[in-house]
Structure formats: structure tokens, C-alpha cells
Amino acid sequence: MEMFSAAAGIKMNNVNYRGAGPALNDPLGGQIQAMASAPGTPKQHVDEGRLRVLANWGRSASQAS
To answer: How many domains does the chain have?
Structure first.
């Protein structure tokens, strides 16, 4: 996320969670605007249109997008 914010020229605050599952609740509830996660964690919500993929740090496009 630090590399993403630097490349995008934006400032972000880090919020620590005990795993991607609990972290997923906050963007779904509107408490945070972005999160970093493996693609499988938010895939269902991306497919349903509740979340969208902003960036992928892999070599190819994520199948979650």
C-alpha cells in the first residue's frame, strides 16, 4: 500500500487488523476506503459489485477483478 500511495501521489493512514477477514468489514461498511488483500478474500464482494480492485501487485491481471 505504501508503494501504491507513493505511485498515486496520495497520503494514506495505516490501520492494522488481525487478518483480511476482519479487515474486509470496514470497506464494506464504509469506515475505510481501501485495503490490501490477497485476491481471494474480497473476490465474492468484487463479483457482486460491492468492492472494486484498484491495483494488483502480480504480473498479470487478477481474476478477482
So the answer is: 1
